[in-house]
Amino acid sequence: MPWVATFLTGVVVPHAALFAWLLTLGGLGVGVSLLFGLCSRLGGVGAIFLAVVNILVAGGATNAADTIGHNYLLALVGLVVIISAAGRAYGLDRLLIARFPDARLLRLIA
Q: Which terminal Cβ of the chain has fewer Cβ within 10 Å, N or C?
């Protein structure tokens, strides 16, 4: 995909340190979200986003088959978490929804 290469060379490479921190903090946020079941649906969306970014950077489905496979699995896990709202059964989302039962935004992201 030529637009990905243009974006990477024109925007990401000149600001590599910033994007490295953004990816690190994004991965940490997704990991904490999914590990503790805190805003798990939002964490699932973040997992899918990080997986898509990694797939695009790796060159799509033609290069680095092991990297692509792991990221497809990450995206699938994110989708399962979004659909099942897993944090409501075993995570901190259950406690938050019990404490704030009328919070619409919480019900959307938790």
A: N
